[in-house]
Design brief:
The chain is mainly beta. It has one domain (2-116): Metal Binding Protein, Guanine Nucleotide Exchange Factor, Chain A, CATH 2.170.150.70. It is built from one helix and ten strands; from the N terminus they run βββαβββββββ. The strands form three sheets. A four-stranded mixed sheet has the order 9-4-3-10. Strands 1-2-5 form a three-stranded antiparallel sheet, with no helix packed on it. Strand 1 and strand 2 form a beta hairpin. The protein is globular, with a radius of gyration of 16 Å.
Length: 138
């Protein structure tokens, strides 16, 4: 079982199985996910159960597509799904509580990658919080 939840815990999903994860660098997915990229996977709708679905808010991000997020904490819970649903649902990998066997299988819209994230592989990495927060100034 693949499980996910929002930051505040009001909304949870459980999927019996999922596709590989697709990372998207387009500006719409970056903004919807609140990060350097969006990461999503596909599940079959009839294999997904929701707890707290009444706490979901839906935003029509483009004609024929909508995204759902927790109306309390703002966590993206789905990707851009058809407003006329088919048998699949796109779920947000950023909401996963466990990764199960899901792995990134593709990166799309790579040319739209946020320029501020370039070179992040070369900067110092920490296993805990960044120790320089208190000294950061513009």
């Amino acid at each position: 079982m693949i499980g996910g939840s929002c930051l505040c815990g009001a909304v949870r999903f459980a999927a019996e199985r999922g596709s590989g994860i697709v990372v998207c660098h387009c500006s719409m997915c970056r903004k919807a996910a609140g990060g350097a990229f969006g990461a999503f996977f596909v599940a079959l709708r009839d294999e997904v159960t929701w707890e707290g679905a009444e706490h979901l808010s839906v935003y029509r991000s483009s004609p024929g597509l909508e995204r759902a997020f927790c109306k309390h904490c703002g966590t993206a819970m789905t990707g851009a799904n058809l407003t006329e649903p088919d048998e699949t649902i796109i779920l947000a990998a950023s909401a996963l509580d466990n990764d199960g066997s899901l792995r990134v299988i593709a990166v799309e819209h790579a040319a739209a990658k946020a320029t501020w994230s370039e070179g992040s592989e070369e900067v110092p990495h920490f296993d805990g919080p960044y120790p320089g927060w208190e000294k950061l100034r513009p």
